[in-house]
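Repro:
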Amino acid sequence: MCGIVGYIGEKQAAEIILEGLTRLEYRGYDSAGIAVLKNGHIETARAQGKLFHLKELLEKTPLSGTLGIGHTRWATHGKPSESNAHPHRAGSITLVHNGIIENYLPLRNELKAQGCQFSSDTDTEILAHLIHQEVEQGKSSLVALKNSLQKIKGSYALLVLNEREKDHLVATRFQSPLVIGVGENENFVASDVPALLRYTRKVIFLEDGDVAQIGRKEIQIWDGEGKKVQRPIEQIDWNLSQAEKGGYPHFMLKEIFEGPQAFIDTFRGRVDPSSGEIFLDGAEKIFDSQRNFNKIYLVACGTSYHAALLGKFFFEAFTQIPVIVDVASEFRYRNPVLDAQTLLITVSQSGETADTLVCVKNAKSQKAFIYSICNVLGSSIPRESDAVFYTHAGPEIGVAATKTLITQIEALFLIALCLGRSLNKLSREELLPFTQELALIPHKMKEVLKQREQIYQTVLKYQRAPYFLFIGRGFQYPIALEGALKLKEISYINSEGYAAGELKHGPIAMIDRGTPVVALAPRDSYYEKTNSNIEEVLSRDASLIAIGSQGDKELAQKAEAIFFVPKTHPLLYPLLTLIPLQLFAYELAHFHGHDVDQPRNLAKSVTVE
């Protein structure tokens, strides 16, 4: 989720690139850098931290030249530091990269054996060495790039400078966006449209596999099969605010639609679906330890707590170790029984949640092993932990968590699978179907997202409802809680989530004619029981909004509105049933004119009690 910018023309490149990076800083803010070609030499400036540190550096030591590239980083490999900041260089080659190289470890070892010297911990530097080796054999940077791409697996958007080629830069993309801005005697390239709007409204969207050579007056593009192609020039009419949101009216909606890609980015490099192998950085400290964990605590707040509730199902299913789920603000004030045989897993998007951080410190003092799941590299909770699983959701601007919840659920599932395998509770044959199905989840998410218009029409029908009840059983109970939370935190409408089996113990008293009840009822092992609860609310004349498995005609006949999700393994249904609830909450809040991205009284990261 990094931001990249390139320029070639007649103006000073550094000024234009820095302006573009400013527009893209929301995509990454742990380091930044610029490289400019001047008189056959590439000069580079890099700085750790937010972009203003790079600006201060360039004020002291300006870079001049009319061809350059820049980058603002969201770390995936290697901690935030100046040495890990882009651009990266090998010989005459300097480049910037957005994405993840899955096979970077074997490539790095191979290049080291050949005598290559590395100055960073990043996967990106491998690309610089691969391209440099090709260039040293007399190939152009264009050919060298094409050849190097044959050796890597993963996602990328790349801009490459070659000291020996002063009239152009080369670029490519695969599963990471890249846009060319078309100007007069100048051209631009960036990972997102906002970086270009001050200079041009004419853009070319590169497609997966495209390789481009970009000069001042000419742009040449080859597709993934090596065939020269003409991509259309499109006119962008967005204003800057719209552009930062990718054309969406709010960051929250954009981030809901980014869920599938966030899932892919968190999955990629960690799972080999063909073999079932799972590789979790740093997790060997858990899986190879001799601690013999006899209990697991999952501790979190808010939406992350709902992910933890799902994690309980995953860990008990795959490890057969007892699991206790706690709200961090409660856990810190009681005296849980912790020792060296306790595994404490914390879930925090920001890594700065005050209550969760105190829990970590208390548990650490009692010798528990701390494993954190977090989306922000280098934040406080990971620094206090024994091991960390970083999700790769990218920056989440909207206060209401959406795509980060998806990656938290994914992380918990992968950790549980890996721990179960290490304890010999799962065989390789049992593991394989799960990893193969996980690889299909992003496509199935996209199928669910296609129902946005249908969800909006349902919102129109229930726009004046003063109260919503969300129900689910088993794996869907935490999703019912999350659906209610999302609705109340951005639409300010009273809503409650309940385990469907608890209706008769009190909540059913709230139901009368027309009360909207949102029932999560995919065809899992709880389906028949959930149907019984649906009949209970229908007998009280409730209005049923259902979420069910594709093709469930029986459920469709009972519901006033129904949203379908593709069939999957029962444990993975929450990743799909969650999405209609996020969209429903968004559409209802937007309809009422609320500030969806910054709801009243809430903050993105709760760093106080």
